[in-house]
């Protein structure tokens, strides 16, 4: 696929009940890449059918039969959600650049060359920014703006539009990401945590032509819960004792102060210490501190088991110069 000097681009499209959009999407992607230097004929379009109940899978198969050189189809056993579909596409991709996008035609394929060019400039992750969104203002645009501000503040990775599916990842960076839940929108933050360079570019956003949006209030709640998980992963995934141990020490401190206050009341006012509410507060926070410390120790054991059993490093390497990367370190 492709000629000498070209790179391979993998376009991952999660599909859920989008039978009316797929034909147009395929045609638009082909047109957009026709004049893209380095990727003109060197791309694959991976359609991941996420348990569609309409004719989406049949349309995907028709596109594969019509264009087997570029179109690949993956069918999941049931509807696992957009994050799982994107993860399946990432795992199946072989491209130097991996680019997920929606199947509903709201992402504009003519923006693909713009994102790929940024990756060629040296960035590891390029996120699309839908400046002029064609969504309902109060139910989609306003909640999204609040969510983007909150995610940027908590993760420390400042992006205007985490929710835009249209992003470009350097292949080796995407392969290191293992999203679950609703975490596909947090991938730039997770990639940045591993040392990847992240930027964003303005992209076009179009009104939905067919079907209806799959987003609802329930997904917003799941995103907020996943944000808490991401914050923990970014800050304490390799050092859980730092968070649970700190909470435990604070809890112990409050318990000690409450106990000292109860003793002082006993000495000064001769109050019954057994019925004093400050003694119960002391006991509550002391026991809570023990539990937090126990959680921290269990977390440390799990982290070590995870990294050591998989021989998974706690660092990532951008490049090595000066020696054969396959040579044993012990030979130095």
Walkthrough of the structure:
- By secondary structure, the protein is an alpha/beta fold.
- It has 2 domains: 9-236, Spore Coat Polysaccharide Biosynthesis Protein SpsA, Chain A (Alpha-Beta Complex), CATH 3.90.550.10; 240-309.
- 48% of the residues lie in helices and 12% in strands.
- The protein has helices at 22-34, 56-66, 82-92, 112-120, 137-155, 171-175, 187-193, 217-236, 240-269, 277-309, and strands at residues 9-15, 43-49, 71-75, 97-100, 125-130, 167-170, 198-203.
- A 7-stranded mixed sheet has the order 3-2-1-4-6-5-7, with helices on both faces.
- Strand 1 (9-15), helix 1 and strand 2 form a beta-alpha-beta unit.
- Helix 5 packs parallel to helix 8 (217-236).
- The longest helix has 33 residues, at 277-309.
What would CATH call the architecture of the largest domain?
Alpha-Beta Complex
How far apart are the termini? Answer: 41 Å
Widest sheet: strand order? Answer: 3-2-1-4-6-5-7
CATH level 3 topology of the largest domain: Spore Coat Polysaccharide Biosynthesis Protein SpsA, Chain A
Helix content: 40-55%
**CATH H level of the largest domain: which superfamily?**
Spore Coat Polysaccharide Biosynthesis Protein SpsA, Chain A
- Would you count the extended β strands for me? 7
Distinct helical segment count: 10
Give the SSE string. Answer: EHEHEHEHEHEHHEHHH
Residues in β-strands, percent:
5-15%
Mind describing the biggest β-sheet? 7 strands, mixed
- Indicate the radius of gyration in whole angstroms: 26 Å
Report the mean per-residue pLDDT as an integer: 84
CATH class category name of the largest domain: Alpha Beta
For the record, the count of structural domains works out to 2
Look at the helices and sheets and give the structural class.
alpha/beta
Large-scale geometry: elongated
Q: Low-confidence parts, pLDDT < 50 over ≥5 residues?
A: 325-332
């Amino acid at each position: 696929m492709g000629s000498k000097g070209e790179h391979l681009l993998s376009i991952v499209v999660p599909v859920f009940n989008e039978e009316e959009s797929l034909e147009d999407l395929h045609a638009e992607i082909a047109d957009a890449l026709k004049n893209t230097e380095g990727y003109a004929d060197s791309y694959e379009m991976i359609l991941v059918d996420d348990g569609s109940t309409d004719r989406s899978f049949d349309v995907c198969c028709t596109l594969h039969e019509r264009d087997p050189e570029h179109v690949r189809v993956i069918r999941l056993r049931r509807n696992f959600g957009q994050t799982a579909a994107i993860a399946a596409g990432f795992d199946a991709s072989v491209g130097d650049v991996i680019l997920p996008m929606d199947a509903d035609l709201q992402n504009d394929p003519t923006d693909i060359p713009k994102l790929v060019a940024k990756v060629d400039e040296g960035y590891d992750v390029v996120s699309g920014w839908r400046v002029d969104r064609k969504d309902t203002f109060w139910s989609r645009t306003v909640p999204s703006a609040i969510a983007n501000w909150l995610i940027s503040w908590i993760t420390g990775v400042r992006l205007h539009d985490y929710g835009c599916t249209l992003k470009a990842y350097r292949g080796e960076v995407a392969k290191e990401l293992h999203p679950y839940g609703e975490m596909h929108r947090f991938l730039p933050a997770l990639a940045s945590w591993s040392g990847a360079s992240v930027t964003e570019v303005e992209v076009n956003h179009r009104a939905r032509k067919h079907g209806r949006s799959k987003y609802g209030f329930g997904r917003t709640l799941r995103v907020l819960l996943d944000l808490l998980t991401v914050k923990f992963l970014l800050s304490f995934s390799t050092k859980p004792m730092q968070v649970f141990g700190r909470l435990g020490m604070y809890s112990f401190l409050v318990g000690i102060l409450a106990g000292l206050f109860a003793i002082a009341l006993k000495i000064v006012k001769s109050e019954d210490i057994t019925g004093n509410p400050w003694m119960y507060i002391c006991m509550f926070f002391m026991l809570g501190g023990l539990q937090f410390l126990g959680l921290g120790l269990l977390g440390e054991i799990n982290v070590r088991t995870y990294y050591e059993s998989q021989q998974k490093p706690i660092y990532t390497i951008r490049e090595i110069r000066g020696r054969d990367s396959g040579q044993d370190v012990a030979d130095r």
